[in-house]
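for the writeup, i need someone to sanity check this before i put it in the appendix. the sequnce is what the collaborator sent (i think, or maybe the updated version? ugh). structure was predicted straight from it, no edits. if anything looks off just tell me and ill rerun, i have time this weekend
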Amino acid sequence: MIPFLRRKGPARREEPAGLDLEKLPRHVAIIMDGNGRWAKKRGLPRTAGHAAGAETFRTIATCCRDLGLDYLTVYAFSTENWKRPPQEVSAIMDLLERYLKESIEKMERDHIRLAFLGDLSPLSEKLRELCARTEKISRGYSGFQANICLNYGGRDEILRAARAMARDCAAGLDPEDVAEADFARYLYTRDIPDPDLIIRPSGEVRISNFLLWQSAYSEFYFTHVLWPDFSKKELYRALESYQKRSRRFGGI
């Protein structure tokens, strides 16, 4: 589902009216929802919705980079999405493979960073290899990073982290010495700050097993716009809403 983030000419900072570019979140996360409904409304197969959603990802990721955000994390395929019809799952994986091949050819030129969060072991060998090659190229660059949650589930992530920590405790780590920051290092997001803002399009108002640990103090923004129709203007609205909020993190 993830297309190459094309850069046409030198990077430029967008300056949409109403946004304070000095008060942008460092990390925005998005639950990319509504592809199937978008296709159904148009009498198209669900796979057409996923293809349209992939192009929206390219647009929004490029916009986030140009605005100066540090991280964008998107929910591309959950641990529960395997329950979908096999033809749809296969089409999603084929789409991902195609765009990763494109990105590997060009991301070195454009210094694009992509990282994958989740259990990649059930994916095909070819797709796992493409993910590994993409991440290897990314490690040579700094700046904006797009994180792709692929076969990801928040509960699964926490359970895997707890198991890893338990093994370390069995090897001698004192559980009483483990602080929140220590546990967080066992998560997929160990080197990534928690999301400041989580956006969910499509009209659904739930978190759907996404970044459960990391979203403890995230701000949320919900909209009825389906993901393939989510434009830069919609992103600006979400960011404007975020900037009007007071983040107290439990304080006064």
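The helical segments are 35-41, 46-67, 86-110, 125-138, 154-170, 180-184, 232-243. The chain has seven helices and six strands.
thx in advance!!
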